[in-house]
Structure formats: C-alpha cells, structure tokens
Amino acid sequence: MHKSNSTIHIRKIMAKGGFVLAILALVAVHSLAGDPSPVQDFCVADLNSEIFVNGLPCKNPKLATPDDFFFSGLDKPGNTNNKVGSNVTLVNVARLPGLNTFGISIARLDYAPYGLNPPHTHPRGTEVLTVIEGTLLVGFISSSPNNKLFLKTLHPGDVFTFPVGLIHFQFNAGDSPAVAIAGLSSQNPGLIVIADALFDSNPPIPDDVLEKALQVDKEIIEALKAQYKV
Ligand SMILES: *[C@@H]1O[C@H](CO)[C@@H](O)[C@H](O)[C@H]1NC(C)=O
To answer: Residue 144 sits in a domain of what CATH number?
Structure first.
C-alpha cells in the first residue's frame, strides 16, 4: 500500500520531467521505510556474534529450530511496584532471535491503578496498542511548532496508534489494574524516556543547559535530578 502509493507519486513526478526530483523521491521513500526488508525467509539472530552490522548476523539457517521463533511469558504481568506504577515487557530481537530482519516486535504493558507509562519515544518504531483490560488515557504530541496533543480514552478492545519518533504516554485512569498489548514496527524500536534523558543522563546535562531550556531556577533542576539519586 505504502510502496504502491509512492510508486504512483514518483511516476507523476517523472511525467513532469523532473527526473532528478524522482531520484530524490526514491531516496526519500527508501529512507522513510522502517527496518530493511528481509531478502531470505528468515535470519535468526546470532546473539553471540562479534560482527557488528545493521541488525544482527544470521545463524546458519540449517540450524534454525522452532524455538528460535518462539517466546513464552506474555501471560505474566510485569511488576508495577515502581515509582511510575507501570511495567513494559518488550519482546524484541534480543528476546526472540527469530524477529531479526522482520521489522516488528511486541510488548505487554501493565499499569497499576493510576499508573503511568511516562512520556517517551521509540526512535525506530511506530506503535499500535490495544487495551485488554482497564481504562487508559493515551496521547501523543505532534512535532514543533504545533505540538498538538492527540488525546483519547481507551477501553478494552480499543486500538490506538503512536507515530514513529513522537512523544507519547499511557495513563491508567481507573482504580483497577490495566493491561495492553502493543506491536512496534521494528525488531529493536528503541526507547527514550523524556524525563530520564533530561535528568538522569550519564554524565549529567549541565544545570546551566537545563535552566535555560526549561526557564527555571537551579534549585528546581537540582530537585528534579535528585529524585533519581534515591
Ligand atoms: C518489570 O517486571 C519484571 C518482571 O516482574 C521485573 O523483573 C522488572 O524489574 C520490572 N521493571 C520495573 C521497571 O519495575
């Protein structure tokens, strides 16, 4: 669908004689894609390989077994007894080697009553989430300068999608636990939790930088950083 639309678009550009533009568009289409497509049936990740490539090297396909494509445990809730009251059990290529080159992963999300999966982004993955149990208030924020918040309350069976790279969150708006399952468009979507990146980086971001960025006094920055020291 995505590819054929792009192809039609490129043909239109070429019809106008914009050959160079068409080449540029091709390059753009390529770089907009998610993980690269497989060029073989499978490429079970060799997690112990010392070779560094984009993705992971394949183990010998003749040695692949059903267990390489298998993970068990998403029936078990993650422990939400932490300061935000949520837990994400991510099944990415590191936990399911058969996912290597497939461009997808899956996660179970557990929320204590009023628990929060705090504002975060996945640099490499668009996400689609469905609620299994409970009520979630979910949202994402579009890029600057609009910073538009797309907010929605979800109930069991409801599905919501978060665009790649955009900051998003889920909040359990009810007084009972909530559970969701999410799919992500990368074998290794990555995770940046906004507060952790700003206030718990290693080494720390200098206070001067955060004071100016957030337009607050040093005391507030120090208090925000101090929460991570306890
Ligand atoms: C999430 O749950 C797992 C399994 O109970 C636990 O090992 C892990 O420490 C929890 N993570 C957080 C951040 O609480």
So the answer is: 2.60.120.10
